[in-house]
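Message: Just now I want nothing more than another pair of eyes on a protein record. I am handing you a single protein, as its sequence and its fold in token form. As I understand it, each token names a local backbone shape. Take your time, and here it is.
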Amino acid sequence: MLPGPARGKGDLCFIISYIGHDCKNIPDFLGDTYGQLARRLDLSFNQLRSLAGLKLFTELEELIVDNNLLGNDLRLPRLPNLHTLTLNKNDLTDIEALLEHLADVTPSLKYLSLLGNEACPNQLVSPDKDEDDYQRYRYFVLHKLPQLKFLDTRTVTKKEVTESQARGAFMKVVKPKSEAPPNEIGSESHPLPYTPLPRGSKDAKNHKGVFAKCRYVYYGKHSEGNRFIRNDQL
């Protein structure tokens, strides 16, 4: 941890760095000691799965939590002064839920970075995405967080603001659920309601052969066997 004094609003405040400690939760002593003083908090390169410990950092203005394990269950306390948030290289996949949560708890947010998450379709980490995918993502983010001035590595442009207002709501990428083809016979998700074999024959440990007598026998010169035999072959 490398705390450093800084000036803010006429009071002594701190820049707190707690990097690379492999912690899974924010240590209690950080909040107890620096919660009211910290303006900038860097928790990068840990194993964080939750940010519940931020509840004591009520005056935060900048929060960096890159390279952690934060997922779609991420919840932040209300941070009315937070203007900068970087969540690069985490496990975020649901962009809509994240943005709606941030809109609720970080009303002053101006800078947001989500690079390295599946929720951010950037070509550097998602080879199957292109610049159009990323631009649609930007329109959607700006639709949800219209007060942003900087997203990922770019300044928000006036054109993007205009497009996000006009079309941003329709830019969400929806992934279709994988389903078996409707005409696929015998799939596990659509088992056949009948079987041509008796139950016993389907049990690998109790396999049974099936025997039966033919009910129809053909006799006479018009039988199926004699129909194709010529007189000179008799």
Summary: The beta strands are 4-8, 11-17, 38-42, 62-64, 84-86, 111-113, 150-151, 154-155.
